[in-house]
Specification:
single chain; 144 residues; alpha+beta; Jelly Rolls; four-stranded antiparallel β-sheet; 5 helices; globular
Length: 144
């Protein structure tokens, strides 16, 4: 994917523009319609929104519970970059949504080619995951 100023300012402003240009060779753009499920993938939301849902069975009845809404500039699916384990949730577009994706192979190639930028990228991912876990813990403590 060629460098795109809008995608940079929306998703990668934590990097300098010159540094961010390194990552664009490893990204692909995809679009999803409202209600469309995303196969397990890592992506940053460029426009639109995604819901993270988990199927829960209670008394033999399955219901999808919304765990989070992922908006513009946020990411989802970071586990895909780490291992091949099955995802514990479903990602669904709640409106027409455009994302930039990176496969596990693209991620590994990116880290090998640009380790310094990769460290900054990983720091951003870890910071966001840490914040999400903190928010989840606070919600859980409130319920208990």
């Amino acid at each position: 994917m060629d460098f795109c100023q809008d995608t940079y300012s929306t998703c990668f402003s934590f990097l300098s523009e010159d540094t961010a240009k390194n990552i664009f060779n490893y990204l692909e753009t995809r679009t999803f319609e409202s209600g469309e499920k995303l196969s397990p993938l890592f992506c940053f939301v460029v426009s639109g929104a995604l819901d993270v849902r988990r199927e829960v069975k209670t008394g033999g009845i399955s219901r999808a519970h919304a765990l989070a809404r992922i908006g513009v500039g946020s990411f989802v699916g970071e586990g895909v970059l780490l291992d091949k384990s099955e995802s514990f949730c479903t990602i669904v577009a709640v409106e027409a949504t455009s994302v930039v994706t990176m496969s596990k192979k693209q991620f590994e190639d990116f880290l090998f080619e640009y380790p310094s930028t990769g460290c900054l990228f990983l720091k951003k991912l870890l910071t966001n995951v840490h914040q999400r876990l903190g928010n989840s813990s606070a919600r859980l403590a409130h319920v208990l």
